[in-house]
Amino acid sequence: MFAPAYLDHNATTPVRPAVLEAMLPYFSRQHGNASSRHEYGRAARRAIDEARQRVAHAVGAHPTEVIFTSGGSEANNLFIKGAAACLKPGTVAISAIEHPCVREPAKALRRQGWQLREIAVDADCRVASADFSAALAEQPVLVSVMLANNETGALQDVATLAAQAARAGGWFHSDAVQALGKIPLDFRGLNAAGVHALTLSAHKLGGPKGAGALVVDKRVELAPLIAGGGHERGLRSGTENVPAIVGFGVACGEAVAELDTAARRLRGLREELERGLVAQGARIFAAGAERLPNTVYFSLPGLDGETLVAKLDRAGYAVASGAACSSANPEPSHVLLAMGIEPGLARGAVRVSLGAETTAAEIAGFLQALSATVTNLQSLAAMAC
To answer: What was the pLDDT predicted at 146?
Structure first.
């Protein structure tokens, strides 16, 4: 079977072998419901407790601060909708580059009397300090700024932003889905600075789809999105997905153990990729920002990103034209538009995100395939004229 080189790890990652091995028993012989009081149930509960400890350790949190969810989208919704339900309507401030699972629930709050304030970013995808200060002057009740952008890989100094927001008296949340397993995370330190909640997801670091977490300061009052049996401190009812939660814990343990070595290797591959892209005339987005070590977002003037992605797929390289969750949207990336990128150039955007299996040979092959694809497309365009 034809299998392109996989260069789309920000969309999802292959499940690690140790993760799969740890999960398998909970699909069969250890199939108990964690709420049952017999040995099968107690075994499932122990497995969840151990996974909770592993996830908490990976981000420097206490296990009681970890609320398991079905993924990052649910965790983001739980914070925004759950916190808003316990507060008087006010202003919710989010950065202009947030993932749709933050943007959409924030927009939905307007139907409940809330005001939405989008915080501008600069040309390198970093929160604009002047506009952030202006937003804080409006005394937002809820603030959400993602730690690492899923498209450009740009990192935000959320500790500094949260410390500023603390003076406005609001709750500060950060979507850290793309950061987990790629850069160090310390919820205790971030919490001391003013971050009240972090969102995590298993499938971005070699864990299974269907498991995520909201790491939340217990002083924050949240209303559950899903009511029922009172699971997860009453914040997420429903029979726990034991295999996925177990896999999440193992993935966190492995990713943190190898983080430094993996980051150095990926950064080297990213730099090699970027040198080759620039040599071909590409524009690297957010090049001036501190970024995730595995992410490159670029555009070649005059070329359509969707067309490039399709051609590269046929040439044996799986990449993306933007966020996988928004791939059905033909409009230019809202992240690039917020950065002030001209719409035509934004439509040409292609994201390459590297992972544990990515090799130097794949980077070299990708650059060769890209050059050949661009030459072919330019020739076709010239013939059409």
So the answer is: 98
